[in-house]
Amino acid sequence: MGQRYAADVIVVGAGLAGLVAANEACARGLKVLMLDQEGAQSLGGQACWSLGGLFMVDTPEQRRMKIRDSQALALGDWLGSAQFDGPQDKWPARVAEAYVDFASGEMRAWLAGLGMRWFPVVGWAERGGEMAHRHGNSVPRFHITWGTGPGVLAPFLRLARQHEANGLLQFAFRHRATTLSVEGGRVAGVTGEVLEPTKVARGEASSRVVTGDFSATASAVIVTSGGIGGDLEKVRRAWPKERLGPPPARMISGVPAHVDGDMIDVACAAGAATINTDRMWHYTEGIRNWAPIWPAHGIRILPGPSSLWFDALGNRLEAPYLPGFDTLGTLKRILATGYDYSWFILTQAIIKKEFALSGSEQNPDLTSGSWREVLKARLGAGGKAAAPVEAFKEHGADFVVAETLEELVAGMNALGEMPLDLERLRLQIEARDRQLDNPFAKDAQIAAIRGARQYRGDRLIRTAKPHRILDPKAGPLVAVRLSILTRKTLGGLHTDLGGAVLDAEGYPIEGLFAAGECAGFGGGGYHGYNALEGTFLGGCIFSGRNAGRAAAG
């Protein structure tokens, strides 16, 4: 009759949130069974692919960079970005406030005590660019962990292996949960299918051949199974058409195919409620991976502020739709053209200093945790960008490199669906270039570049010295076709602050908890409508910790 398990707590999903939750329960002496439909090679989930950025407030790293931050400023930024707007946001708002308290207080000391360390230059992501009470980070808060995503996972994996060695934690890979067992109104366990063993590499699509079944009983079940970003059709069905316009006909995927959201449906079948399912976070700076690992594999460019951004019709994007300022506003602006792509036009001088690619595998120097490797990659490349960026420039299907604007536009027209007018582009670029003739300018992007360079971190490693795009000395010219890249689900299973899953009436379902992306990173969507970056991994850690402690009683 299949495999049978018994534990005190079952965790469904072996990603970052699941590991944190399992460790918290084990630390309280409980026996935990961790289920995951993928193989052991995928332990750690999406976090392994990440850049390892964490949203933290008033840290030593910030103070060393002369950044003045505070809990009040961070909470104001968060609420201005979230734009919570209804009774369904009661718990998301409570979780958001609690996370900002955590990020302003014990978060850094607790993680440092586990062995984490951070790159000393704090990143300034998602700057907003509108008004002080609206969306965006007022100051840099993006702390890149030494070792990137694997560096974030490392202490929690170490603890998990210790709990496994002590007999408190059992892993059951290739176990796909299909039903939550409910007895007397209480979730009492999980049943599902055992999939055939797999040897595919992390991130590659694995077999779904069923070889058996299983059942497991426990006093509590914690769902930490991730979002829907790997299923492009689910993304389209959930797309907020009234808010962002119609979903793109063509998208690329920032997450592996197994990030399918199926476990959210399983929880709903057991009575769980979902909220804010039309809130999502997709990037506008996606490029097709020239060495793909999963289907439609895309990578995000993390741009500095200097690249000129044009829509598919050849119109330069206006403020606040500048690189790195307003992700969802820019997404809506791009889709309003009727096309699902846009363009960067820049120079070699800009790509060398400003382009970074998101992900641990695209930043081997930071992933190594070695200062020698970082200095070699970032400062020792001569006139070139970091090696992964240069590889995309050479091999990527979305890149055009040319010595003249005429050649560049010809290459862009070979890639794009909408022919671009050379003289129309030239007029806009030359008008921008003339703004550099004196220290005054009406161009909002020029002002933003100069403002960015007032921050030492941006001046050192993230913002090129202002120069004319058409200056041959800064060349060659580079154009990049940008696609919509799916990434995060901002809504999900409705939970309270402790991660207890709520039913349609708002009451906790006894024995059922959720954390991480499947729960909107806490509460059913603690980001509201917009994310401030570094809050995805941070949300997994925070909500996983809360759920693990609450499930342990």
TrEMBL record:
FAD-dependent oxidoreductase 2 FAD-binding domain boundaries = 8-537
Database matches in InterPro entries: FAD-dep_OxRdtase_2_FAD-bd (IPR003953), FAD/NAD-bd_sf (IPR036188), KsdD_DH (IPR014614), Succ_DH/fumarate_Rdtase_cat_sf (IPR027477)
An MF annotation (GO) of this entry: oxidoreductase activity, acting on the CH-CH group of donors
Q: Which cofactor does it need?
A: FAD
- Highest rank taxon of the organism: Bacteria
Q: Which UniProt keywords apply?
A: Flavoprotein, Oxidoreductase
Could you identify this protein by its name?
A: FAD-binding dehydrogenase
